[in-house]
Write a structure and sequence with these properties.
Elements: H1 14-20, E1 33-34, H2 37-46, E2 54-58, H3 64-71, E3 76-81, H4 87-96, E4 102-107, H5 115-118, E5 134-138, H6 142-158, E6 169-175, H7 176-183, H8 193-201, E7 202-210, E8 215-216, E9 223-230, H9 240-251, H10 258-263, H11 268-282, H12 295-311, H13 320-329
Parallel strand pairs: 2-3, 2-5, 3-4, 5-6
Antiparallel strand pairs: 1-8, 6-9, 7-9
This protein binds S-adenosylmethionine.
S-adenosylmethionine is lined by residues 29-34, 58-61, 64-65, 80-83, 109-111, 139, 141, 144.
Length: 331
């Protein structure tokens, strides 16, 4: 492993490359570029020591963060970019780092990218051991960032994809408000379903905020850099969909007492009985509002719901929204 910073041969600046290749930012791909090397270096620094690691960068665009990653001398760098217009600028970096970093360019939608195949040479670590030398880094497109993190939480819960190798760490950007929601502790005004989902499986840190003016074009909001480290012992070991369903029902009515939202988990004829029972089994106050419930208590509520599903199999597929739609549809 080499901790030394790698010097790249002189290259045109990212600003010059954008001009040279006429890389006009596309709104539909949420393209906002970072040109300031101090900021891209700081993002990569937030990932910890990546020298000798396998790094997957999502959405490298013209390659600002990519340069900062290469300077840290990873063993292998896989960049996954949907927009093929960036191929020449990425190939330039590939050439410049040849012999030092094994860089692969994937022109693909990250949602279709198979991390497990791409990382197949990495030895698998025990989940309870040290994290594997894998980092996912990306200035994510706003349009898919929340959806992506939910997909990855599911993969973490199933120990699949990049998490088939152990507790691979993520360093990602989100709209500042989303970053705050992911991190929001119990009783915080931003606490929501996303907060609990993230915290059930990961240690979430909002490392720093990048002002919107640092991007070209400037987005309407500031951007938060977040690290997510999968927990050695997640709060729940239950099917992801089940957890997601319980939380969705709870946070449907954020300001109402939780019992009211929880009742909707059950068909009308069982509501009274099972609503109360859920909170008794979980030992959670049914008068608390959803944002006043701790992550640990949510885990207990999910386990209690699972027990009720075992006893009353008819509730497993019950979904209040679907039922209502059916009713409305039948008029
Ligand atoms: N990393 C560059 C930077 O910091 O300057 C660009 C960041 S820009 C916010 C997001 C990048 O993600 C763009 O290059 C965009 O083309 C790419 N992108 C958008 N949707 C994507 C997807 N589904 N899969 C892979 N890349 C995507």
């Amino acid at each position: 492993m080499c901790a030394a910073v790698l010097r790249l041969p002189p290259l045109p600046t990212i600003r010059d490359l954008i001009r040279l290749y006429r890389l006009k930012a596309l709104k539909q791909l949420s393209q906002n570029f970072l040109l300031d090397e101090r900021i891209t270096d700081r993002i990569v620094k937030s990932a910890g020591d990546i020298s000798g690691h396998y790094v997957c960068e999502v959405g490298p665009g013209p390659g600002g963060i990519t340069r900062s990653i290469i300077k840290k001398h990873p063993r292998k760098l896989i960049v996954i970019e949907k927009d093929e217009r960036f191929l020449p600028t990425l190939e330039l970096l590939q050439e410049a780092s040849q012999g030092f970093v094994d860089m692969h360019i994937e022109i693909n939608d990250v949602r279709d990218f198979n991390f497990e195949n791409a990382l197949s040479e990495v030895p698998k670590e025990d989940w309870l051991g040290s994290p594997p030398p894998i980092n996912i880094i990306g200035n994510l497109p706003f349009s898919i960032s929340t959806n992506l993190v939910i997909r990855w939480l599911k993969a973490i819960s199933q120990k699949q994809s990049a998490w088939a190798f152990g507790r691979s760490k993520m360093t990602l950007t989100f709209q500042k408000e989303v970053a705050e929601r992911m991190k929001a502790p119990v009783t915080h005004k931003q606490r929501c379903r996303l907060s609990v989902m993230c915290q059930l499986w990961c240690n979430v840190k909002h490392k720093f905020t990048i002002p919107g003016r640092a991007f070209i074009p400037k987005p309407k909001v500031d951007v938060g850099v977040v690290t997510l480290e999968p927990l050695k012992e997640p709060f729940v070991d239950l099917p992801f969909e089940m957890v997601e369903k319980v939380l969705r029902h709870f946070f449907n009515m954020r300001q109402k007492i939780s019992l009211k939202s929880a009742l909707r988990l059950f068909p009308e004829e069982l509501r009274e009985e099972l609503g109360e029972k859920l909170f008794i089994l979980a030992d959670v106050d049914s008068n608390a509002r959803p944002f006043e419930i701790t992550t640990e208590e949510y885990a207990r509520l999910c386990y209690a719901y699972k027990l009720l599903c075992d006893d009353y199999p008819q509730i497993v597929d019950f979904d209040f929204r679907i039922r209502r739609k059916d009713i409305i549809g039948s008029y």
